[in-house]
Amino acid sequence: MEGYNEAVKSGKAAALTPGNTLKEPRLVAKAPFLALPFSGGMTATFGGPKINAKGQVLNAEQQPVPGLYAAGNAIGGLFYWNYIVGSQLTAAVIFGRHAAQDAAARAKAKGAKKA
Hints:
By secondary structure, the protein is of the alpha+beta class. Helices cover 31% and strands 8% of the residues. It has helices spanning 2-9, 87-114, and strands at residues 56-58, 64-69. The chain has a two-stranded antiparallel sheet. A hairpin with a 5-residue loop joins strand 1 and strand 2.
């Protein structure tokens, strides 16, 4: 805590590891202190291929690419500026199910054509 507070007082909080990027970092002066391990990560891509309701990836002419599907974080057009926590999981389940159903129907139709 002493090292952190000294860095804040001297204006060197950004040089800490990890660096403090707050514009006005606050001193930590009152115990008890609790430390937890934490690491950031990417949760959503905010981009990716555009799909239709069946989870089929669309080409530049907005036509499905035969046999190509996407769901969850792999799809574009679902998020713009921000997202609701857990919504990418819901998108994965919904569009994944639709994609699986369409892919199964496609495989079954191909099998019927061979027979």
